[in-house]
């Protein structure tokens, strides 16, 4: 018998109807033995994700506002699914513990994690698999960094005792204090990958609401072409740049064990979806996918004879390290260095950063471009062809998009352009049209 790990995203466990589809998928293949679930997501466009409601409870708690009614909405969602499916499980005792912990000032991570916890309790009872909590198995250090090897050992030892299990996504615990720690948003994908590695799965199936990875975000490009096969490396670039289907940190645990990832659609289980493996695509295709994110700032630092000045880059990095900021990109010219920073990392401290740059780097000039979006055009085929960059820039020029920054990764399978936030969608459509 083989082993498959399945992760069902929020859209796949959003309500009773979705849970029924989930159960059918699991039961249709005996290899589908380890199931990772997210918290219930949106049932319709203007609905709330349970995780967002839980974070809102925490905000209310911190501001001494009532949160009982908000938590009641969450209870109602779980109870409705339980009733609709006739599941025999006592959820009330779990709600009571969570509410009590909230009254005692529980952390944001603990509260946010309860969506996945309750979801896994419910699904385990529904399909008759064991419930295996990840607290004490997925381990983090004091700085909230995943302890990958310890986690692998702990998960592997525990799961070997269970032939079938439902496992909550998104969280684990601090190795020393035992407190709950969550991954960043979308992190249930990482749990699925860690479980896949721990049980040495033959396949990691990631079930969502699209039939695989598409060449571009379907909310921006109408009916983008699906990607049948993609390499871990290409996918990581796309995920990191904003293609939200799979969390970028979900790739490493599968890559080390060479476990293929299959992105599938819970609403259309017959579709084959996208297969992600180590193999580099050798087809004629030039571009595999396009992805991007909004809200970056580019700081361009000009200094005559900069290339000859030793330690300049190191000083830039040290200043940013003091602000605890990591750089997204760093395009360089002879007398210019630009740093591209996420606005979320700058966190309102732009003036302070510029002050430090001026004081410590003594530049001739500094220019700042705010409200920038980054768009990555990714594909192995790009380094085998001449004229790819020209085609991309012509497409953007024809669409009247002003390019504020260009960076080509050293792997040459990725060209990143910075455009104004207002041009973001237009630019993605133009690039898609040029390469699809
Ligand atoms: N390149 C892409 N291909 C497919 N979907 C994409 C892409 N970029 C963004 N998306 C969005 O990602 C969504 C799936 O991810 P997510 O919302 O995290 O699902 P889940 O709740 O199943 O984890 C899709 O509904 C789609 O809107
Ligand atoms: N529920 C968490 C974790 C997660 O991975 O969710 P989803 O699979 O619905 O993206 C979040 O909303 O971030």
TrEMBL record:
Pathway: Amino-acid biosynthesis; L-methionine biosynthesis via de novo pathway; L-homoserine from L-aspartate: step 1/3; Amino-acid biosynthesis; L-lysine biosynthesis via DAP pathway; (S)-tetrahydrodipicolinate from L-aspartate: step 1/4; Amino-acid biosynthesis; L-threonine biosynthesis; L-threonine from L-aspartate: step 1/5. ATP binds at residues 7-10, 208-209, 219. Its EC number is 2.7.2.4. Catalyzes the phosphorylation of the beta-carboxyl group of aspartic acid with ATP to yield 4-phospho-L-aspartate, which is involved in the branched biosynthetic pathway leading to the biosynthesis of amino acids threonine, isoleucine and methionine. GO terms for biological process: diaminopimelate biosynthetic process; homoserine biosynthetic process; lysine biosynthetic process via diaminopimelate; threonine biosynthetic process. Substrate binds at residues 51, 116. Keywords: Amino-acid biosynthesis, ATP-binding, Diaminopimelate biosynthesis, Kinase, Lysine biosynthesis, Nucleotide-binding, Transferase. GO terms for molecular function: aspartate kinase activity; ATP binding. Belongs to the aspartokinase family. This is Aspartokinase. It comes from the Bacteria. It catalyses: L-aspartate + ATP = 4-phospho-L-aspartate + ADP. Residues 377-436 form the ACT domain. InterPro entries: AceGlu_kinase-like_sf, ACT-like_dom_sf, ACT_Aspartokinase, ACT_dom, Asp/Glu/Uridylate_kinase, Asp_kin_monofn, Asp_kinase, Aspartate_kinase_CS. It comes from Hornefia porci. GO terms for cellular component: cytosol. Pfam families: AA_kinase, ACT_9. It is an enzyme of class 2 (transferase).
